[in-house]
């Protein structure tokens, strides 16, 4: 495999000074915690803004974006270094084709990730869509089946087109919170998480606006309709997820070739059944036998 080219992160200087300061502060916080490399895996349907979000985070036009779904057919990792810190972002092709999760694309992504460690999963969708459906559920399930449920402890949901205008009759806040709740619900269901579990370890959601027409604040930072500068906000969420005490996901051969990681526990089922037979069923049988014997004896008298 060709060595990965790590270039200096020049794009950081393209950000307004206020954003640069916040980003360097966050990277410093990670280094303080001995995190000097960060690998972010970007996944989602085609055309939702995965590549655009990668470009926005790096402030460079590194990967091609397209309104017509002409995505690169394979994953690509972009690496940038800054002050002893390396940021890797892996852009992937859309997971859906002709209304189905494309297993070949998923396989391609898994193979590409072999021997890499994923620190953060950025699951991208659009804010300006009105429905979640079974396909969304299938995508989340497919990601969970491929990398294990625990990848979502490192997950962030990013909704692009954060500056959209909601349909008549709904305020922006109302629309954004309804859409966010609907997406998070389908994500929770796709992972197979109980509500209580989700409340304990919720998956953060961020809004993103990749368009060049994004509004800016007085410090020239791109802001969402709520006035928040979203790039530092997203990087802040990323650092929180990295430092939340959960494990990164090492994509080893077992994960790529092996059975569904969520079903590995099922190998123990025969053992558990045998245990139950000898220690529970046998015992109950003995009790019953003793009971019958006692009964007979008492009848004799
Ligand atoms: P991908 O297929 O998921 O990688 O999506 P792309 O990044 O190629 O984006 C698809 C199209 O949506 C492109 O025309 C982008 O310019 C556009 N796009 C992506 N993100 C946003 C966003 O946040 N706001 C707006 N207005 N357009 C976006
Ligand atoms: Mg793309």
Write a structural description:
The protein is α/β, with parallel strands linked by helices. Helix content is 42%, strand content 16%. The protein has nine helices and eleven strands. It has helices at 17-32, 50-58, 103-112, 134-147, 172-191, 195-200, 230-242, 253-257, 269-300, and strands at 6-8, 37-44, 76-82, 85-91, 96-97, 100-101, 117-118, 120-126, 155-160, 205-207, 249-250. It has a seven-stranded mixed β-sheet, with helices on one face. Strands 5-6 form a two-stranded antiparallel sheet. A two-stranded antiparallel ribbon has the order 7-11. A hairpin with a 2-residue loop joins strand 3 (76-82) and strand 4. The longest helix is centred in the last third of the chain and has 32 residues, at 269-300. It starts with 5 loop residues before the first strand and ends with a helix. It binds guanosine-5'-diphosphate and magnesium ion (MG). Guanosine-5'-diphosphate is lined by residues 46-52, 65-67, 71, 94, 160-161, 208-211.
What's the layout of helices and strands?
Layout: E1 6-8, H1 17-32, E2 37-44, H2 50-58, E3 76-82, E4 85-91, E5 96-97, E6 100-101, H3 103-112, E7 117-118, E8 120-126, H4 134-147, E9 155-160, H5 172-191, H6 195-200, E10 205-207, H7 230-242, E11 249-250, H8 253-257, H9 269-300
Parallel strand pairs: 1-3, 2-4, 2-8, 8-9, 9-10
Antiparallel strand pairs: 3-4, 5-6, 7-11
Helix pairs in contact: 1-7, 4-5
Bound molecules: guanosine-5'-diphosphate and magnesium ion (MG).
């Amino acid at each position: 495999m060709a060595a990965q080219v790590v270039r200096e992160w020049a794009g950081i200087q393209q950000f307004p000074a206020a954003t640069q300061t916040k980003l360097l502060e966050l990277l410093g916080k990670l280094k303080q915690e001995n995190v000097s490399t960060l690998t972010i895996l970007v996944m989602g349907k085609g055309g939702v803004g995965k590549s655009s979000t990668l470009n926005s985070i790096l402030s460079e036009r590194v990967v091609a974006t397209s309104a017509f779904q002409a995505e690169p057919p394979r994953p690509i990792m972009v690496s940038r270094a800054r002050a002893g810190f390396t940021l890797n972002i892996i852009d992937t092709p859309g997971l859906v084709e002709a209304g189905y999760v494309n297993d070949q694309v998923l396989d391609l992504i898994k193979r590409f990730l072999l021997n890499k460690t994923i620190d953060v999963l950025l699951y991208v969708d659009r804010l300006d869509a009105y429905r979640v459906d079974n396909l969304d559920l299938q995508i989340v399930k497919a990601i969970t089946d491929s990398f294990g449920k625990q990848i979502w402890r490192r997950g962030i949901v990013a909704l692009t087109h954060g500056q959209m205008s909601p349909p008549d009759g709904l305020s922006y806040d109302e629309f954004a919170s309804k859409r966010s709740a609907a997406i998070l619900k389908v994500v929770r269901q796709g992972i197979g998480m109980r509500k209580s579990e989700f409340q304990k370890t919720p998956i953060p959601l961020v809004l993103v606006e990749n368009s060049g027409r994004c509004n800016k604040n007085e410090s020239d930072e791109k802001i969402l309709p709520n006035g928040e500068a979203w790039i530092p906000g997203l990087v802040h969420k990323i650092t929180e997820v990295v430092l939340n005490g959960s494990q990164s996901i090492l994509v080893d051969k077992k994960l790529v070739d092996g059975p569904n990681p969520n079903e590995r526990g099922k190998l123990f089922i025969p053992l558990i059944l045998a245990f139950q037979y000898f220690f529970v069923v046998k015992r109950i049988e003995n009790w019953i036998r003793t009971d019958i014997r006692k009964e007979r004896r008492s009848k004799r008298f």
